[in-house]
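re: that complex we talked abt at group meeting.

here r the seqs, copy pasted straight from the sheet so there may be weird spacing, ignore it
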Amino acid sequence: MKIDYIYLKNYRQYRETRIDFAGSPNENFTVIEGPNGAGKTNLLNAVTWCLFGEEKHINLIKSKGLSIINTVAVDQAKEGELLSVKVEIQFLNNNNKRIKIIRELKYKKQKQTTIEIPMAHPPPSIIFEGEGDWSQPLNGEEATYQIKNLIPPSLEEYFFFDGERMNDYFRDNTGKDIQKAVFKISQLGLFDELIRHLTARKNEYLRAAKGLGSRGKELQEFIELQEQSQSSDNEELKSLISADHEAELLDEKLNAQLKNTSKEDIENLANRREQLIKDLLSVKQEIKGVEDDKLEILHKKMATILCQRALLETKTLIDNSRAAGKIPPKFEAIKS
Amino acid sequence: MKPMSVSKRLLEAIDKSEHSDEIKELLKTLLFIELRNSERGDLHYSEEYDRVIKRIFGVSLQPEASE
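got the structure back, here u go
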């Protein structure tokens, strides 16, 4: 959250001023500078007055007895005229939505120099920018509550830093206060309490459990047995679930195939199957015929096959003897 | 007056943690109790803690009285 602008009217030395703070990504730093008494510290006071109804940076010696209202405005006002002191701060939250906080104090001029003293802490009002438009203003206690949620008073010094009081910021107490406040706003303290309380409950349970004695031990053993049994049951269940899943997948696959098959296709397939069986029988018969033929040939040629080697050797012997002139030549050779 | 709420960042951190859903619910509920108690200045927590634990886990951690 960052400040978009501060508007001041009749607040101490400011008659009517609006200060716009740099907000662009490249120019996001605003310097407030001026001579003594220009109103630098009172700008910080205006912020804390607007937010918390209190001027936290006031210089007590310089401002003692001085009213918050601009004295020039009081001097120039006529008797009975209404005057108001107003500080308006507009913030931009992280979503770039506007949050406007206003505190206004009304005075009535009575005589030439005296004014009616109004209430000490006038209520602030706060308006949030919604999606489309501004919300209804929240006033009084509800506004104070919302402002404290946005900027806890204990963190004020952290955000609105007065350089002139540099030494004060490094006091031990201030550092600890800021640490406490950061802890509170971040809600980390809730976790501390949660852990402390849970630990306390655990210790109490353990103390009570010790009092159970042997019964506690029996119960513990019973629980362990139950856990073991549950573990094995779980394993079995897992395998059954897996098998069931596989069966479901197969069923789905078969159903899908069946859905895609027409009656005609089934008849064709049956006919083809019948034809294939017939063809198979025919081939088997042919094979049998060939085998029968083979056997018959074997029977007929058996003597030749068995005597083949002896015949070849005899022929070789005759050829060799003829070549050696031991037996007469072939008839054809004599004739030629 | 609107009640304060537990920081979204804390709740998101719990949601992103690797704890079981029951533990996450327990932590978030107990944070709400702690926040409410801190606002009220209420120091009593035991019964509320026991009730939340019983509701989330379905069992009472409070040991039964021995016979």
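couple things i noticed - The interface with chain A takes residues 1-2, 4, 6-7, 10, 27, 30-31, 34-35, 37-38, 45-46, 49-50, 53, 61-63, 66-67 of chain B (CB under 8 Å). DSSP finds three helices and no strands in chain B.
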